[in-house]
Amino acid sequence: MANILANEGGVSDLIVLQAALLHDTVEDTNTTQAELTEEFGAEVTGIVMEVTDDKRLPYQERKRLQIVHAQSASPRAKLVKMADKIYNLRDLERQLPQGWTEQRRHEYYKWAEQVVTPCYAENDRLAAILQGIFERHKGRRH
Predict the structure, then answer these.
(1) Domain assignment of residue 50, given as a range
(2) How far is CA 19 from the centre of its chain?
């Protein structure tokens, strides 16, 4: 994701790039917010926490909250969110995960578009990439 931000989005903010590398650390490992802050500082940790799902919540509620939170996220968190979705959507373009149907892929694209649309103003280049992905997907559906 840092590669997407730097090379495709033109992002050079080291705090954002670090947060992109660490964006799933608290969500997917035993690393705590305090440990992340100790190692990488409050700014990086703040961005990571903005894009971290609360795994204690049901899956559908986490997905709903991503849509809600994207609207009020910081500009830096919006950049990380956009890069994360670009990465995930490109993976889905290449191959369906095991157990996924075409319908689930379609639902993921619709949901992801709702998440990232409020982020578009933060980076025109990343927005254009996302819009292209969504257009390609819509073309496949018809």
Answers:
(1) 2-141
(2) 11
